[in-house]
Structure prediction request, 398 residues.
Amino acid sequence: MLTANTKSGTRVCLGYDYKKETLLKLRSKEDFFCPECGERVSLKLGDQRIYHFAHKRGSMCGDFYERESVYHMEGKRQLFQWLINQKINAHLEYYDREIHQRPDIMFFYNGKKYALEFQCSTIPEKEFIKRTNTYCQNGYIPLWIISDNHFKQKERNVLSLSNFQFFFLRKTFDGVFYIPSYCPEKRSFHLVGSVISFSVKKALVQSSHYQINHIKIWDLLNPKILKQVRLDQWSAEIEKFNFYWSMHPSPKKNSFLHEVYIQNLNLFLLPPEIGLPVHHSIFIETSPTIWQTYLYIDVLSKKNPKEKISIEEVEFHFKKRLSRKEVIIRKLPQLDGMRPFVAVNEYLLLLVKLGILTRKTGTLFELQRHLSKSKTNREKEEKKQEFYQKYHHILSKI
Prediction:
């Protein structure tokens, strides 16, 4: 831990750049106490780790802090200095006695109170959600920043994200989704932006890197990220997903494939309008190929041109799939309260732009033409190329 109180109640914060000589003098004449549990702590001034306070062995409060890595302590120290250098009222390891939580940094910005958590280790889902909800219910805006060593990017613009990493997803004021991360070793922020998922764990992303002295707090809270998608890459990843899905059977996959086949469809010959990138698809853990196929089976395939399609009808079938766990919703604690159906609605509006539907009222659509199915791979490839060339300007800016 990096903060402690003296016997007189004076707060000592090692987030500031104290010289070792100053701290040696302070240690010789002061006793230090944990602000949270009140136990006595020691001021460690070794050469192997950064200066820090430590509980005595066996302390219940100290069990958490003794597990802190140098990486974590150095990261929150740098983030604290970054904030105070911007003249922001920040408090390192502030313990809120009312909620019994201790964010790494509490700070005030534009009249709002933030709880910054620099998370280097994986914590249970329940704990993450509980801490996030407690912050929100008590006037804080949670700002979770994941350590950059969690990301292992093997392909350009494609990232594999665990459920835990998705918990860090935030939204800019312009409606773009991103995950903030930080590396204290490189002193660099890594913003994983414009996240558009195409499977349970994989997503297309845009990565931006900023040295800590080249970015301000506003740029972290509301980064400028374009809503763009590489269509060639999206199409290739969807094709790979379809192939993997069909070649690795499971009861869940077999149920979907069986329904596809009895509808006289072929997973490899689906219309190009199925499996499209939708910005809010991250709210749905199930691949866009699957939930858009279900929408086609349940609604679109049953209508003739000029017949009406209501939002209520689409939502009824969507909820039915949810109840049978054929479509799974993704848990996003920092975006709690946003309805996953917004992704389906966004897809319907995309079909309007593509001329498949017209919008008659706010909740009513009309089918203009059927989606055309292919009979051969060659026909499918020709249709797909023609489709992406014709609608590139629409699909690349979802």
Q: What stands out?
A: The longest strand covers residues 188-197. The radius of gyration is 26 Å. The longest helix spans residues 231-247. The chain has a mean pLDDT of 89.
